[in-house]
Structure formats: C-alpha cells, structure tokens
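Protein modeling request. Please complete all fields; requests missing the sequence field cannot be processed.
Requester role: graduate student
Desired output: 3D structure, token encoding
Chains: 1
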Amino acid sequence: MTSTYSPVDIKSRRLALKQQRQLKIIQACWRFLFVSSLMGVLIWVTLLSKLVLRQPQQVEIEGNQYLSSEAIKGMVQETTSQSILTLTSAEIREILQNQAPIEQVTVNRELYPPRVSIAVTEHQPVALTVPNPRGIHPQEKGYLAANGTWMPAESYRSDAFTPPPLKVIGYQPQYQLQWTKIYPQFQALPMTIHTVNWQDPTNLILETELGQVHLGGNMETLPKQLQVLAKLKNLPQKQPLNQMRYINLKNPDFIVIELVSE
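Delivered output (262 residues):
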C-alpha cells in the first residue's frame, strides 16, 4: 500500500521536525548553562575558601606608636572568620574606633594572597587608670585617652610608650562621657593634678600641688570649682601645706580648708 501525503501534510511534518530540532537545541543550551553555572559556583566557593584570613600574619598594622600590633589584631579577630571579600573598610574601622583609642583608620585589602593592611592614627593616652580596691567589679590597670577610650595596660608596647604622669583611681566605663568633659578643664587648670580619685562617685577628689581637693559629685559645678581652685594657687604663701588636710570646694561659694589636728 502506498501512502500519499498532501502538500499541507508535508509542510506540517517539516514544521514539526524543525520545532523538535529547535527544542533539542534549547534544551542543550539550558543544560550547558546549568552545568557551567554549577561549575562556576563550585569554583567560586573554592576560591572564597582560600581568600579567608586564617593567620594573624595576614593582617598588617601600620602607624601604631603606642598600641601593640597584637592588641589591634585581637580586636579584628571577629572578622577573620569571614571571607576577605565580605570585610568592608567601614566594618574594620568601626570595630577599631569603638574599641581602641584610635582616631583614624585606613584599610587596604588584597585578594591574592589574602591580606589586610590597616593604617591607624592613635589617640595618645593621657592617664594611667588604677583599680579601685574597694570596688565590687574593679577595672584592671590600663590607660585612658582624652576621648574616654580605655585600654588594658598589656595592650601598649613598653619599648615605645612612656606612661602619662596623671593617675585616675576607680575609673569605670560609665564615666566616659564625664571624662571627655572634665579632662579638658583639668588641662586648663594652672596647676598640676597628680591624681583623680573617682573611688567615691559622690566625692571626686583631686591630688594637686596644693594637696587634696574635695569636689563632691556635682559635675555641673566643676567649672566654677576649678576657677576657685585656680585662684588658690598662691595659698601656700598664707597657709603651709603641711598644716592642711584637704581643701573642701564642694560648695564653690564657700572655701573650707580642713586643717591637721594638733
């Protein structure tokens, strides 16, 4: 039996075969794209695993004069478990400026070999903090910057660091805002302050060249108290220092000098 096809049937069969070929081509292209994408993801994951900061040597510190490189690296440890591609300069800058007496941070990153170079400009420590022996949770010995940032003593390099002469006893983190306000006033005082005793928050005590000065706990009156104290610079000419226990300026309108009992 001989089959005959009309021109319309032949045209329809040709069109169907053409569509089948096009479908196979499209399917082959999709398979190629899928396999290529999968291989690309695998390569990318493998690459990322090699671009992770795993060793402290991969972090270089520049410009630090007081803080040790180890102390600065320790602050960015929380970022070293991530890919270097995910570490933004802003993240590293925020970590360091929030946790250390550092004013400026510049971060340069290299992809291969993975490396981070951190250039810092430090705040100079202005005071040595001494723990309050009577405190419930005394803060350990350390150093304080003018902006109130505190760092433990072991964070500073002994070969390049001279401890400041000013001591602060009983400093606590919650005093940071107060410190940023009162320290410039201490600097402007025309006499030497040796110690700031903060053991009792209701009575700030200064050890000065005139001896002890009791200021109380009202920081709002401190500017006036220090103005009065500055006027007492020549007090030793009228009253021998060895006869005074302390100067009471809790009320700056009434100067009280407590004398040594005979």
